[in-house]
Amino acid sequence: MAKLKDHLGRPVVAVTGIGVVTSLGIGKADNWAALTAGKSGIHPITRFPVDQLNTRVSGMVDFLPSSSKGASALTYELAETAAREAVAEAGIDAENFGGPLFLASPPVELDWHDRLALYKGGDRENASDRILEVARGLNSSDMFDSAQFGTIADRLADAFGTTGLPITLSTACASGATAIQLGVEAIRRGECERALSIGADGSATAEALIRFSLLSALSTSNDVPEKTSKPFSKDRDGFVLAEGSAALVLESLESALARGATVLGILRGCGEKADDFHRTRSKPDGSPAIAAVKAALADAGLSEDEIDYINAHGTSTPENDKMEHMSLSTVFGERISQIPISSNKSMIGHTLSAAGAIEAAFSLMTMREGVIPPTINYDNPDPAIALDVVPNRKREAKVGTVLSNSFGFGGQNTCLVMAREPV
Fold first, then answer.
1. Among 76-90, 240-254, 265-279, whose mean pLDDT is lowest?
2. Would residue 325 show up in a list of annotated catalytic residues for this protein?
3. Pathway involvement (predicted)?
4. Confidence band, pLDDT 50/70/90 cuts, at residue 120
5. 338 φ/ψ angles, rounded to the nearest 5 degrees
6. How far apart (Å, rounded) are the C-alpha atoms in residues 272 and 295?
7. Is 350 a catalytic residue?
8. How far is CA 25 from the centre of its chain?
9. CB neighbour list of residue 122: distance below 8 Å, 6 or more residues apart
10. In CATH, what is the architecture of 13-109+147-419?
């Protein structure tokens, strides 16, 4: 019989439901088929004019009804769609989840259609006076609520019947993994038997594109969109802005087994490390990333030799990929060249707040299916990054443990260790 407590005497945390939406499609089945086929979801931007922009491609999710209604509406629909798939797979009442909600989402601001409505409304000659006049006369709180950071989580909590105050967090590109970590920790502390952790991001707006372009963070290789994202390649030139979501139903193993749920995987360990080196740049010595990886392994009670596969952060930026290689080489030593390491971002782009959750979902599926998704567009290897990146084609392999990395702007670093089966 599987042990119900881990090496530190805490409840073992199982995954009983997974939901995914990316530019590759809605649901685990379509995403997994495309991912393992090496298909890219990167495409030309059509949501807004890009004639004067250096970057004209993205991994936007353009096929949901709310894709034209602004970042807040799309982020909510992405989160809800992934959560419904996960809760259904877990076999839990979709309107009475009975556990807390942890949502990773982007910082929210007024969408442009709301800003323009304020600007154009009213009778005053001065624009600022018109805005104040319209704002005072609003009979609905919808516009106000849409710009509040916790609104999306509040709506999700009402829709799914989660318990307690829903938590919204934003830790840059580590957000999705952090949402999972919070769910794991709540179960370990005995605060709940199950938790719903979601990472969702529908904020690939014109403003976001311009902001990241000003940071020189985005790829400008627009000619062949599906080849734009090329993690660990010598000619990588930046990440591709993208949207998506993933939801995990986390549950104590004891609870899952008691109700006959299918266990899809185990969350063995979580590691987190932050630093204040720079608002966007990674610390040159990689020490925060190294510490996050080591903390995740220690939390899982595993040694470096017990990791079978690494789902890389792998953004396709010159600096991040170099730092991730250096960090992993420091932790795993010479063995790093023998561990398969691939980047899902080569196909779906960088989904920002959702990335850590999406990659955790794909990591769990990698173990269950015995197939490692490739790193596509690996046509020009970087001799300074000697890794087995599972180049261009999927690989069948028995994978029992996975390390999933999320290294974000502002020194936010979170790593997750997952296992296929309970101990």
1. 265-279
2. no
3. Lipid metabolism; fatty acid biosynthesis
4. low
5. -105, -10
6. 7
7. yes
8. 15
9. 129, 130, 131, 133, 134, 137
10. 3-Layer(aba) Sandwich (3.40)
Taking CA atoms, 316 is separated from 130, 181, 319, 322, 376, in Å, by 45, 25, 9, 10, 11
Between vectors from CA 270 to CA 179 and to CA 412, what angle results, nearest 5°?
Answer: 65
Closest by Cα among 323, 294, 332 to 385: 323
Tokens at 200, concatenated: 């969702």
CA dist., res. 377 & res. 151, Å (int): 39
Residue 262 is given by DSSP the state: P
CB-CB contact of 36 with 218 (8 Å) = no
43-44 and 412-419 strand pairing: unpaired
Residue 174 burial (CB count, 10 A)? 32
Cα separation, 157 vs 172, whole angstroms: 23
Per-residue CA distances from 396 to 35, 309, 364, 374, 390 (Å): 13, 12, 15, 11, 10
Gyration radius of the chain over CA positions: 21
404, 361 Cβ separation under 8 angstroms: no
Cβ atoms of 7 and 232 within 8 Å: the answer is no
Tokens for 224, please give them: 């062949």
pLDDT tens per residue, range 354-412: 999 999 999 999 999 999 999 999 999 999 999 999 999 999 999 999 999 999 887 89
Q: Are 116 and 70 in contact (CB under 8 A)?
A: no
Residues 307, 312, 313, CA angle at the centre, nearest 5°? 140
**Given the residues 192, 270, 325, 350, the one annotated as active site:** 350
H or E element in which residue 19 lies: strand 13-22
Q: What is the pLDDT of residues 203-246, one digit of tens each?
A: 999 989 999 999 999 999 999 999 999 999 999 999 999 999 99
Spot the catalytic one: 192, 313, 325, 415: 313
The tokens of 65 are what? 């009804």
Q: At what angle do helices 112-120 and 127-137 cross, to 10 degrees?
A: 100
Where do the structural domains in the chain lie, given as residue ranges?
13-109+147-419, 114-145
